[in-house]
Every structure is written in C-alpha cells, then in structure tokens.
Design brief:
TIM Barrel, alpha/beta, binds flavin mononucleotide, about 30% helix
Length: about 350
Amino acid sequence: MSSDLFTPFTINEFTFKNRLGVAPMTRMSAGDASIPRQDVLDFLVTRAKNGAGLVYTEAIVTDYESAQGYPGQARILNQDQVDAWHRVTDDIRSHGAVSILQAFHCGRMAYEGVNPANRIIAPSPIAPKQDNPMTGKPYDLPKEMTRFDMDHVINGFVETARGAMAAGFDGFEIHCAHGYLHNQFLSAYSNKRSDDYGGSMENRFRFIHETIQAVRPEIPMDRLLVVRVSNWGIADMDVSLFKDAEEWKEMIARFSDEPIDAISVSTYDYSEKAFGTDQTMAALTREATELPVMICGKIHDRESAEAALKDADLVLSGKSMLLNPDWVADVESGNPSKLYSSDEAGVAYTDKPLP
Ligand SMILES: Cc1cc2nc3c(=O)[nH]c(=O)nc-3n(C[C@H](O)[C@H](O)[C@H](O)COP(=O)(O)O)c2cc1C
C-alpha cells in the first residue's frame, strides 16, 4: 500500500525514512544518577528498530536547581549521562531513524522535594489551576524569576544542548508546550510581568528568543533545533493558553524568524478545530510558517495518520508508540489500531518493561 506516510522527508542533512515519529514521553525511571532505567532506553531503540523514522527522548531536565517537575527524570549534564545516551543514539541511528532530545524546565510545575535545590520559579508568582497529580495538593506559589534566574535557566539549556550533541543526538528540542516554563512565558494566562518579558507577545516571546539564541551556537547548523508548542497545559487543562488564532499565528511567525528547523505542535486531538475557526491547529500553524511542522494528538491508525499528514510534514504518536510495539507496521499495512486511553498509558511509569 502506498502512502505519503512512507515517503522520506528531509530537513537539513537528515532524511526521515518515513513520517512517523515517537513523541517525547517521560517515564520517571531514573535513579540518583539521572539516567533512565536500561529497559526505558531500550524501548526507544526498539521503536527505531520497528520502523519509526524519528525517536524523541523523554523530557530531559536542564539543571540541578529548579528544572525538574517529576520524580525520576533524567539529565545529560555529566559524562556518565552523555555515555548512557550515546549508546542509545548510536543504536537508533543503526536502525535508520533520527533522534531528538527534548529539553525541559517545568517552571511553576515543580513542587517541594522534587528538585535538589528545592526552588520553584516562574514568570509570575501564580500557581497552576489544578492540583498537582503527584501530590494531590495545590501547587505552591512560584517565585517570580529574576534576571539571575533567567540566565541560570538559559545556561541549563545551553549545557543540556552541549550534552545532547556530545551524545550524538541529531536534534534538540526546547519544550515550550504543556504549561511548562517557556510556555508559561509565552502565555498571558501565566505571564503577568510588567517588565520587558511580559505584556505584548513580543515581550512574552523574549525569553524563548534568548534561549534559542544561546542554544543555537551549540547545535551545528546541520543538526536540528526544534520547539514544541501547545495551547494547553497539564495542570490547566480547560484553559486556552492563547487568546485566539491571531495570537497563535503571531507566536508561530515569531518562531519562524528564529534560527530553528521545525515546529512541533502538540494537541489533545489533531482533528479538532482550533480557536473556533474551521481549521486544525496544524493548519493554522502552517499558515504562519514555512518551517516543517510536526503534529501529535490521537493519531492512532492509518486513517488518522494520513489525515493528520495533510496539514503537517511529520506525525508523532505517544500512546500508540508506547503501547503497541508494532504500531508502524500496523499503520503501513492498515491493520486496525485502537485509540489508547491515558489510564492505559500509566504503565509507562511502572517498572514493567514495555515490549
Ligand atoms: C507516558 C507519557 C509521557 C509523556 N511525556 C511527555 C514529555 O516528556 N514531553 C512532552 O512533550 N510530552 C509528553 N507526553 C505527551 C505526548 O508526547 C503526546 O503529546 C500525547 O501523548 C498525545 O499524543 P497521543 O494521543 O498520540 O498519545 C507524554 C505522554 C505520555 C502518554
């Protein structure tokens, strides 16, 4: 069966052998060394072996101070961590897939005890709306970030980018989605600053601009720098983080002016119309940029993957890639493939190795 899904796609030096990628998925398996359990690393290689054209890592936290938001997250800030990931990138490449590391600072989604330095920072001293699923309690009020904090966070992204390149990753993604730190700056809902970093989209964009400008020199121009964006946050589920389609497109246009190579759009459902328009989030994004677009959200079988690819260049799957080792083959052959629930994905956080 022929389909665009199984045609190659090229960005810079990298040709993706097909359009199907493993979305970033946190597994909370790392111990004190901040290195994921071996079976969690093996999972990524298995997905490359089983046909994924692109494999994302879980969200990698960028410092030992304030970046971590969940127990057992990984880092890539020392040689042991670099070595552990190097084996993974080598193996992913040997199966013909592209590897991208996702770098993450959780901002106000941190909580007492999760970070070694126990510091909770955000653009503004406002807590997320929902309770913290990890503690069942409200989140603490974060401290408003100072200039020192901003430089410290940017340094964490720079060091993590260095680690990622040393470990042989083909690309590096700055997590600007899901209500984490950079998303908190971008959205007027969580950013109430009255300095140069709050107010207009130009100001709210300034922190991500500074992060990208600092990180890019660490990523050779032939490797990939990507951002992930979303209109939703993990602990603000029912909030539209951006006002309307115009605001979203203004943000995307600003990203297009940055030295990045692709934009990854995360949705609950790729097919939903966005901001009361008759267009999907991917279609709106495409209108505002010529950069390659990745899309994710409820893409679970051949039909949905083909439909999602109409407005995007690459499609990512989280739960289907997680729970069905043969998902790429099933999409290729058109085998029926179920839509998995979030509850089913809970196995990701157990010590049960995934096939
Ligand atoms: C177990 C699990 C962990 C996740 N961790 C991350 C993460 O670290 N970074 C991220 O950007 N998204 C994360 N997500 C969201 C997925 O990347 C994806 O956007 C989401 O699952 C929707 O896609 P799906 O409908 O194909 O599952 C996670 C999802 C799951 C199921």
